[in-house]
Design brief:
By secondary structure, this protein is of the alpha/beta class. The chain is about 25% helix and about 15% strand. The longest helix has 17 residues, at about 280-300. InterPro entries: D-isomer_DH_NAD-bd (IPR006140), NAD(P)-bd_dom_sf (IPR036291).
């Protein structure tokens, strides 16, 4: 039996429906339907229904899959400390988010918001814009998404470096990676600061008043990670005072962003509704990934994208998928996580 948590039906699950009793369960019925299920597919990645609906230890599913790269909605002890294997949708969103970030960098450099505003006013206003070749970008978070961002920005001519758990040189995608503890020391060198890190106790509020004060006055901040990486009030103050030139936010403390939020009208701020990773066909890709993993599960083969539940990500050195019967926590021996900064964090 497979239970799906979330509104609506994912596309392309006919192969699973032919092989299993698939129950499409909304959040308010999950507690009644989940006990005894073999598999839980969390289609609504933002749902917070799973912890409250989690059954007794003798009735938990053997495998939980979530339609996102982040797993913070599943950060509860009963799952983390039990035998249930957790997998995520790593790899679906990397290229799309990288393209979105490049689009934001170009939008700022070429002043596209002002161009669109002038067009609405029918105001013919010639001006010069910036180039991005040779500008510097700091990518915070060295997992697959951060790496995809770094590769694309580098290809566009920016000088890129990263921030991760530990410092290293000659990284194939990021060149120099600085330790997270050295963030304040490297922020002043960046024209663009891109947040692609997971949310942890260490990364929560990492961009605060002190961090913003070290950034260049002409720098722009782009957050495609988690909203709580940034102290929102501190960012509002920095933009109002002109301490930094701009910010682009795709994630927010409250979603949808309330109509009366000050963020809508702040100078230099671009607001997008948590869509950086969503592309035409992404739902189909998410479903295909689950169907492929479901086939592996039925055949007793190792699952792909097994999350180390105590670290909160798929370990980077696990070149082979971890076994379905292996406790996910044991994957820690495989080395640092793909996300670059550990987390219980669709991105």
């Amino acid at each position: 039996m497979v239970v799906l948590c979330g509104a609506g039906r994912p596309p392309g699950l006919a192969p699973v429906e032919r092989a299993a009793d698939v129950r499409y369960v909304p959040a308010d019925r999950l507690a009644a339907e989940l006990p005894g299920a073999d598999v839980l597919f969390v289609w609504d990645f933002a749902s917070r229904a799973v912890p409250a609906a989690w059954p007794a230890p003798d009735a938990v599913p053997g495998w939980v899959h979530i339609a996102s790269a982040g797993v913070d909605s599943l950060a509860f002890d009963a799952l983390r400390n039990g035998d249930t294997v957790l997998t995520n949708s790593r790899g679906v969103f990397d290229a799309a988010i990288a393209e979105y970030v490049l689009g934001l960098v170009l939008a700022y450099a070429k002043d596209l918001p002002a161009t669109l505003d002038a067009q609405r006013r029918r105001d013919w206003r010639h001006r010069e814009t910036e180039t991005i070749a040779g500008r510097s970008a700091l990518v915070v978070g060295t997992g697959p998404i951060g790496r995809a961002i770094a590769r694309l920005l580098s290809a566009a001519g920016l000088r890129v470096c990263g921030v991760g758990r530990s410092a290293r040189r000659d990284d194939p995608d990021l060149g120099t990676v600085h330790a997270a503890a050295d963030l304040l020391g490297v922020l002043p060198d960046a024209d663009f600061v891109v947040l692609a890190a997971p949310l942890t106790a260490q990364t929560t509020g990492m961009i605060d008043a002190a961090a913003l004060a070290t950034m260049r006055p002409g720098a722009r901040l782009i957050n495609v990670g988690r909203s709580a990486l940034v102290r929102t009030d501190d960012l509002v103050a920095a933009l109002r005072s002109g301490a930094i030139a701009g910010a682009a936010l795709d994630v927010f403390d409250t979603e949808p962003l309330p109509a009366d939020s000050a963020l809508w009208t702040l100078p230099g701020l671009l607001v997008s509704p948590h869509m950086a990773g969503d592309f035409v066909g992404s739902l189909e890709e998410l479903a295909r990934l689950f169907v492929a993993n479901f086939d592996r599960w039925r055949q007793g083969q190792p699952l792909q994208n097994v999350v180390d539940k105590h670290l909160g990500y798929v370990p980077s050195r696990a070149t082979e998928p971890a076994g379905a019967g292996r406790r996910a926590g044991e994957a820690a021996a495989d080395g640092p996580g793909q996300e670059g900064l550990p987390t219980w964090t669709r991105t």
